[in-house]
Write a structure and sequence with these properties.
Blueprint: H1 17-29, E1 36-39, H2 46-55, E2 64-68, H3 74-82, H4 99-102, E3 107-111, H5 118-130, E4 132-133, E5 142-143, E6 147-152, H6 156-162, H7 167-173, E7 176-179, H8 190-204, E8 211-212, H9 214-222, H10 228-242, E9 247-248, H11 255-261, H12 278-296, H13 301-308, H14 312-322
Parallel strand pairs: 1-6, 1-7, 2-3, 3-6, 8-9
Antiparallel strand pairs: 4-5
Helix pairs in contact: 8-10, 9-11, 12-13, 13-14
Length: about 325
């Protein structure tokens, strides 16, 4: 690696164990030229990881080309990927190179590849296996020296079983999989992300320094973040733009965040008609409560104890009594 590569993760905020694991894999595979598939929910930063892979590879002086396969219709996507020749279809008034040709010597990032049509999957498979393709409407074979990085929010193994995704392409992509955890699974990164985004948007919007209150931070920490980092980023931008007092307070947050602050972490208990053993019910409720708290805090006992407002020693004792173990 060249000396500049120490900065490739500057735009990816995270010090949690899941993020450290992802960084470690990126460093190991960067120069392998092997195809990589990045799995993760929408908004987890798959594009940032893909760029980091490119920037830390020996292809970093060549193009990094990205395309969202789910945002373009199948007919247009083929032309976007492989280019077309003049007269290939109505409106094709000149030859146009595709993304694979534009990425020559570099990397191409196929985002949301799970949304690609079966016909196009065949053509992408050919590029991966034979390093060549033909433009739409053309007969000339073009060689492709391109490193493919793909990403999806879908479970491709399940899509294969449903017949929506080619099994041969699945195995060709899954040489080195990288899985990005949802934000709710790495909550220790939330304060870092909030601080980063506040500073970023204060600078961009030419705002004076803004801080966040403990109450507002707690409410954001309790959020499950279905939109992941992207949702958090968009919210912080909104809060910075609208802020006038120099501090983000709980009342500044949208109502849905306030409602979520006191959400129940367990469903209502269903009491059968024939009655229920009180002691058994209490024991099971306590066990379920502890498991929920551990899951919410990534099985960090200190944080789980704080979450339940009990001493760590008390929590450890209850974990042993209930024989609670983390599922691997």
């Amino acid at each position: 690696m060249n000396p500049d590569q120490k900065d490739i993760f500057d735009n990816i905020i995270g010090q949690s164990d899941p993020m450290k694991e992802s960084f470690s894999i990126v460093k190991k595979v960067a120069n392998s030229n092997t195809t990589i598939i990045i799995n993760g929910e929408t908004g987890t930063g798959k594009g940032l990881i893909a760029r980091a892979i490119h920037e830390s590879s020996d292809r970093n002086s060549n193009p990094f080309i990205q395309i969202n396969c789910g945002a373009i219709s199948a007919g247009l996507l083929e032309s976007e990927l492989f280019g077309h020749v003049k007269g290939a279809f109505t409106g094709a008034i000149a030859n146009k190179p595709g993304k694979f040709e534009l990425a020559e010597g570099g990397s191409i990032f196929l985002d949301e590849i799970g949304d690609m049509s079966p016909d196009l999957q065949v053509k992408v498979l050919r590029v991966l296996e034979e390093n060549e393709f033909e433009p739409v409407g053309g007969s000339e074979t073009i060689k492709a020296n391109v490193r493919v990085i793909a990403a999806t929010h879908r479970d491709l193994e399940e899509e294969v079983q449903k017949g929506n995704f080619r099994e041969d392409l699945f195995y060709r992509l899954y040489v080195i999989p990288i899985t990005l955890s949802a934000l709710k699974e790495r909550k220790s990164d939330i304060p870092l992300l909030i601080s980063h985004f506040i500073n970023q948007f204060c600078l961009e919007k030419k705002k004076d320094k803004i801080t966040i209150s403990d109450g507002a931070m707690k409410m954001l920490m309790n959020r499950t973040w279905p939109g992941n980092v992207r949702e958090l980023k968009n919210l912080i931008e909104r809060l910075v733009v609208l802020n006038e007092g120099g501090k983000i307070l709980p009342e500044d947050l949208p109502d849905k965040f306030k409602a979520g602050a006191n959400e129940k972490i367990l469903p209502d208990i269903d009491v059968p008609e024939e009655g229920i053993s009180f002691n058994t019910a209490v024991t099971e409720y306590e066990k379920a409560l502890i498991i929920k708290a551990l899951e919410k805090t990534n099985w960090i006992k200190n944080k789980a104890a704080d979450f339940l407002q009990i001493k760590r020693t008390t929590l450890v004792e209850k974990i042993k009594r209930h024989k609670i173990n983390k599922k691997v």
